[in-house]
Amino acid sequence: EPEVTQTPSHQVTQMGQEVILRCVPISNHLYFYWYRQILGQKVEFLVSFYNNEISEKSEIFDDQFSVERPDGSNFTLKIRSTKLEDSAMYFCASSLTRGNTGELFFGEGSRLTVL
Amino acid sequence: DAKTTQPTSMDCAEGRAANLPCNHSTISGNEYVYWYRQIHSQGPQYIIHGLKNNETNEMASLIITEDRKSSTLILPHATLRDTAVYYCIVRVDGGGADGLTFGKGTHLIIQP
After folding, report:
1. Most exposed: A50, A85, B75, B85, by fewest CB within 10 Å?
2. What are phi and psi of B81, to 5 degrees?
3. A contact test, residue of B98, B100, B104 with most A CBs within 10 A
4. pLDDT computed for residue A70 by the predictor
């Protein structure tokens, strides 16, 4: 069964460092998403991406965050200068279609620890 | 904020049907009810969704009341691997908002 894969599974970084989290969505999917989950809290939407541009973003997704699809397979989330509060599990998701025919498939997540 | 209300936690005996309720009294006509689950900090997993008719797939059944203000997810024969947090999500149809809004969900514990 096709799946969304994420790397790294766990990254530890120092505050102020740049971090890039990588995702390989399901190959024929067209819509891509990042979510995060701080330990013990809710899963929160960050951003959605379609046709090489951001289609929606939440208040969390400020100027420190950026997303990119640098080639035909990878989808990345960059945090420019990490803060302690960026420590969380980051989930990538993809879907074939949008709206209510678009079931989201989530990856297993990348755990980011900022020291 | 999430537009749904779910119990914080529930227990169910292994092999029995698990019935998870969800209230969504402010749901509008073009909003679907989705269910996802999250097993121990793994990525959320889609279970089922519906608009107004009852739905069934290989994982679960979804029963939506006639007024659409509440729904029940049914896992017909719960196993220990069904222990997870179950999220009931209301999602607008088509265009505009793409992001799913997760609430706190129901922590379902399957007891051996």
Report:
1. A85
2. -70, -10
3. B98
4. 85
